[in-house]
Amino acid sequence: MGYVKYMVAASALALSAGTVQAGEIAVIVKTTNSNYWQNVQKGADAAIKDHSDYTVSFDGPASESAVADEVNMVENAINRGVSGIVLAPSDPEALVPSVKRAYEAGIPVVIIDSALSDSAKPYFQSFLSTDNCAAGEAVAKRMIEKAGDSGKIAVMSYVPGVGSEIGRVGCFKDYIAKNSKLDVVNTFYSQSQMAKALDQTTDVLTANPDLVGIFGANEPTAVGMGRAIVQAGKAGKIVALGFDGNNDEQQFIKDGVLDAIAVQGSFQMGEKGVNTLVDLLAGKKVPDFVDTGVVLVDKDNIDTPVAQNVLY
Question: Where does the Periplasmic binding protein domain lie (predicted)?
């Protein structure tokens, strides 16, 4: 990962940190309009309290599909000479040139949540994320366990081609195909818009009255899916599994609308992302990959410490 070359720049930054007051760490995420990403911000804010030499800024586009806006935010951070960048890329390719430019400017970059393409590997220093493939498989196992070995299911996904989506949904469908006779009738993409997910779920429930299971693969998608299930009178009659864990999804668990939700450590992404960046700026070696974990939360364990530590 170009580590030796990078360390020269990191050392220079670490030395200069003593002469510059409160260097900025820019945390740039896919969108600020989501409880999930706001929880990342809480983690970043918690981490920075232990590092008085730095401040944290937090930014993101209005929606996860506004990729060009996120690119501009990274470029602006580079132009104003931030000390480092924690980035959740909304597109695996579009952010690569900006991450390369940060590297060339001696600005360390820590990637969180979603992977960049392999071409970016020399230019960022660590990747912190849920193992989305393992998470997708865990949800698939739950689907088979609760919905049975055969019948129709649907997948309500979010933005096609995003690193987290490829692992999460791809491995879910692969596991279903290899380990059951469940038939995925369709995969829908909500663009991470709750209202769109609601409409898409309403359509698929209407078109497939015999559907036995449905998977909503991120927060806004799962919330829209849950609301459509309630409106269609299908609550408790279909195995519905979600991803992420905001208040709406937690209430759906308690009400029996969702059977389970796979919850990522979003707070941990922000907290560990900032701490990893500070370690880099101090000249320390950091892991190439940090798994921030996932917990399958259902009605039986939602009030336990294990679940409460990841819900938001």
Answer: 25-285
Q: Between the CA of residue 47 and those of 40, 42, 51, 209, what are the distances in Å?
A: 11, 9, 7, 48
Q: Where in the chain is the domain with CATH 3.40.50.2300?
A: 3-128+265-292, 132-264
Judge residue 210's burial from the number of C-beta atoms within 10 Å of its C-beta, 0-12 exposed, 13-18 middle, 19 or more buried. exposed
What percent of the chain has pLDDT above 70?
93
Contact 60, 32 (CB under 8 A): yes
pLDDT at 3: 38
Integer Cα distance of 206 and 203 in angstroms: 5
Give the residue from 139, 161, 170 showing the smallest Cα distance to 89: 161
Where do we find the tokens 């480092």? 84
Q: Is the dihedral of CA 230, 236, 240, 244 positive or negative?
A: positive
- The architecture that CATH gives domain 3-128+265-292 is 3-Layer(aba) Sandwich (3.40)
pTM: 0.78
Domain at 132-264, CATH from 3.20.20.140, 3.60.20.30, 3.40.50.2300, 2.130.10.10: 3.40.50.2300
Task: Provide the 3-class DSSP secondary structure of residue 66.
Answer: coil
